[in-house]
Amino acid sequence: MYGKSPARLVPLLLGLQLTALWPTTAVEIYTSGAVEAMNGTDTRLKCTFSSFAPVGDALTVTWNFRPRDGGPEQFVFYYHVDPFPPMSGRFKDRVVWDGNPERYDVSILLWKLQFDDNGTYTCQVKNPPDVDGLVGTVRLSVVHTVQFSEIYFLALAIGSACALMVIIVIVVVLFQHFRKKRWAERAHKVVEIKSKEEERLNQEKVSVYLEDTD
């Protein structure tokens, strides 16, 4: 009886070891962090994730919203096999699914932004057995006009410098072209003058010869 017990314990110990070696399952969320958009426009709230488990029909995505000035959390969007937009509330007919679960993208598109849309949007993803993990957040700021960040100024400066270089190259090429053309015209005129001078000298020689002959 006791001689058989170690053999029975082998599968159990092996299972415990495999469980210990199995990576901790947790969904990791990635968002754009902070988004600034102009009043009346549309904006995309980006949310992607990573998971050890393959994406299947068990995937669920929940978007919620908390106003900047405080107040209860509000439902924004839900996805499970199919998208389920809100049927009432401030986001009714203003939010659509813009994700692709096969690419681990669960983003949404928010239409016709209003100033009271300012606040924090949360993106929660569950992909069983990966059901734990931090909730992604997107801080939306709706403004009258979009403020240009340093990267926009840098891009503008680089673009202006490139345009200036192109203009300089064009000017140099045109200058060289017209300079060569002018030298060619001058050389042609010199050749013409020499030809006329030689022709005049020849005519004078002929005239002198005829006079001597007479």
Automatic annotation (TrEMBL):
Main location per the UniProt record: membrane
Annotated membrane topology: Single-pass type I membrane protein
A GO CC term attached to the entry: plasma membrane
This protein's encoding gene: MPZL2
InterPro entries: Ig-like_dom (IPR007110), Ig-like_dom_sf (IPR036179), Ig-like_fold (IPR013783), Ig_sub (IPR003599), Ig_V-set (IPR013106), MPZL2_Ig-like_dom (IPR029863), Myelin_P0-rel (IPR000920)
Record organism: Marmota marmota marmota
Parts of the chain that traverse the membrane: 151-175
Domain named Ig-like: residues: 23-141
GO biological process terms on file: cell-cell adhesion
Protein name (database record): Myelin protein zero like 2
Keywords for this protein: Disulfide bond, Glycoprotein, Immunoglobulin domain, Membrane, Signal, Transmembrane, Transmembrane helix
Pfam families: V-set (PF07686)
Domain of life of the native organism: Eukaryota
Subcellular location: Membrane
Family label: Belongs to the myelin P0 protein family.
Signal peptide feature range: 1-26
